[in-house]
Model the fold of this input.
Amino acid sequence: MTEAKDVATPAETATGGGADKVPAYSWYALGVLVLIYVLNFIDRQILSILANDIKADLGVEDDYLGFLYGTAFAVFYALFGIPLGKLADSWKRVRLMSLGLALWSTMTALSGFAKNAGTLTAARVGVGVGEATASPSAYSLISDWFPARLRATALAIYSSGLYIGGGISLLIGGLVVENWNKAYPDGGPLGLVGWQAAFLSVGLPGLLLALWVLTLREPVRGAIDGLPTPENPKPFRGFLQELFQVIPPFTLLGAFQRGPGAFAVNLAGLAGFSALAIFLTSITPGASAYLSEAIGLSAAGLPISDQWLFLGVGYYAVFSWATALHTRDLPTFRLTWGSPAFLSVVLGYGTVAFMAYAASYWGAPYAERVLGADKTDLGWFLGAPSALAGFLGVIVGGRMADLLLERFENGRVMVVLFGLVASLPPIVVAYTTDSLLVFYIASFLAQMTSASALGAAAATSQALVLPRMRGMATAIFFLSTTLIGLGIGPFLAGYVSSVSAGGLSTGMLTTLIAAPFGLALLLVALKLVPAASASVVERARAAGEAV
Done:
């Protein structure tokens, strides 16, 4: 009886193809998911408006601020997204989202009690782990609530929460900081200053939203596509297996269990990524190393920056997981890591995210520091318009992707390509102008054009796998946006700012180096995606899938 209340019936969730009407409950549930994503990005993006205050209070530099916003969050968000993506493919996605929301909200609130860089980094890691539950679960749920003909539109609506939350965070953060510091110039209750109070103000409401999420009904997995998938009787077994394969140093034991050859390959990967991290540290002198020094790496003769330590661990862990997936689930590997079409789409969008995340994070500090904007004004003239720009871009982009798909087999990829190319000119204008008004307008256009690519890229990645693989496909999709886009873009801009005379302007313009790589990848995707999407079932069967 309990299960009947928790899970919707196939009749309630299946809408089929063609012109069948989508149930009202699907739109209601989508609205709740949007609220979750709004809070997700409020908690994530509020660091932008607080960056200058944290820099002054904790005595850190721009490279650390880029690391804190990007890599410290991104690596753990990406790594835990893999086992949590697996759990989203086998357990109750609604419950998983609720637990994750409670975790990241708690860690955001705890950020408000940070007194040094190490504590703030640890809280940021916790936010990354909690938020890793959201999109794998949401993408999978949306794919079971909406038919294929509306999936890019629905995913785009969900993704609008990213931009709404990011924009609102500037307004909330600016208002809280200025009013708190005005009321308590020497520190308020518990000695908290404005930026700490801002973390508390956005973290605590998430605990209430987590209870609302629990009321959503779980749709039948795959029913809407005519491929109903029975519930996994042991959902946590796969989660623990994935966790074991992706978290160092257990990755070594997992590789050893697969045989001498796999163990040798894993050791080679570990050595290679360690050497790469040390090399990148050597060519980025002055990069912060608060945690590396704290855990004794410098004393052990391994001088390495936090940025490359975290990314080295992240890339090695993903390498370990991908090689293990080849052995344990060949069909999923073949349709994701083994698919040039899938990789060209997710990596191509990763370059859009590379520039977009950097611009989104550094926009407020740049306007405040270089152009003299007030915090409250940034909330109204940068944050609110950015929310509108992102919302318009992702909704229109998602709808255009669905409409173009009706005429062209690679129509969705066209929209991703547009999002990459069209965002370049406004980024250049925004970070070279001396006019605050021009900066606001150019930032609006850059946000809107880059946002147009997200729904199309997400829907394309979902179309290239089977229903049971959607959570895992989403996790891999976000590996690109996090370990490439979020993990490197904001840090690169911050590092160049801290070591060059050009400051944040030069730092932001440096991120445009990603554009040629993205262009090449998406041109490949234009050619490969049509055939790949039409042969998903056949390729899965060839790899041993029982479809």
The CA atoms of residues 173 and 198 lie 6 Å apart. The chain has a mean pLDDT of 89.
